[in-house]
Amino acid sequence: MTQNNVLVAQSGGPTVAINSSLAGVIAATVESKKYDICYGALNGVTGILDERYLNLSQIVEQDSTIIDQIKSTPAMYLGSCRHKLPNFDDDSHPYEQIFSQFEKLQISAFFYIGGNDSMDTVLKLSDYAKKINSNIRIIGIPKTIDNDLCMTDHTPGFGSAAKYVATSILEISHDTYIYKVKSVTIVEIMGRDAGWLTASSALARNKYSMAPHLIYLPEVAFDKEQFIEDVKKQLKTTNNVIVAVSEGIRDKDGNYISAGETAEDTFGHAQLSGAGKTLEYLVKEQIGVKVRSVEINVLQRCASHIASKTDLDEAFVQGKKAVEFASNGVTAAMVVIKRLSNDPYTVEYDYAVIKNIANEAKSVPVEWINKEGNNITKELFNYLLPLIQGEVSIKYSNGLPTYMDVSHLHKRSEK
Fold this sequence. Notes:
By secondary structure, this protein is of the alpha/beta class. The chain is 33% helix and 19% strand.
């Protein structure tokens, strides 16, 4: 019997919200009168090439609470990959494999949840589908803590990461304020090309603490000498200076402020390390006060215990919207959010053509950074604040959060 099935996969770096989008896809498929089975490919597009799948509809049928469990589980239930498809004009073999699998599983819609590089995959598969006159609907569902996808107001995963960053800065400030000695704490935050996440550190500020006292984003050229002067100026009015820096800060010549040599990943992106440590050594040498650097690193990506409810709710809706759009004939597109108001915070959902999104990046507008390049404006603060609102209820067992069993991912490598 001919079926009308969908396939979903996840790709790129993990977030708190990407599984919520997956849950939205599953829920919409189950509720749909147009689709029969929702399959999940393990480890992104490589799971299609290797024919590794889960029958997600069957899993939900066995336990109706699974969808809610997936929503509150961090990272990627289906696993991830960083696999760059070749241009099909140069090598069509992987495309032939993928579309052969689509036919075998009777797939009529494919959903890829991910960031910039994942949208490159959506674009290439969409273009190939057009070339071979395939009717398969291919839609991207956004996620990235970097918040750098174009054509959408913000991305799922960013709000929760921003909430974690702001909370960490607030807690670091409480840690440092207990000492009377002069000190500088430098917090390195993810953001290779866009400073959205580092900017969110400003949300930690309140009536008794202005930490972080200095914020440096990659959108503005970083000057080491000016940085030292900025820190010295702050030390005149406060004992404990807290600085937030993006991992991707660079000088006027475009060179990264990094402690080591940079390597490149599969997509040609610089893999950075040590901006905070470099500045720690600089402060120690030039100012001579107590100084330490803190690299939040992967902790900011999957902290479900402090997730933003707004973030998870919007991610779930975007997963459902992808299924709705596909059922209405939309393809070669990505689900997007349009903000209608900051206060009260209201949004609407739509889709945008994928060719206007893939391989592009959205930076923090320069007008949202102060003229000195060491702080953000009120406009950016107001943009960020609604995205971290609301708390998520997490189930605990033996004192720890209870998440979905992902042994189907890590046990495969033991074979």
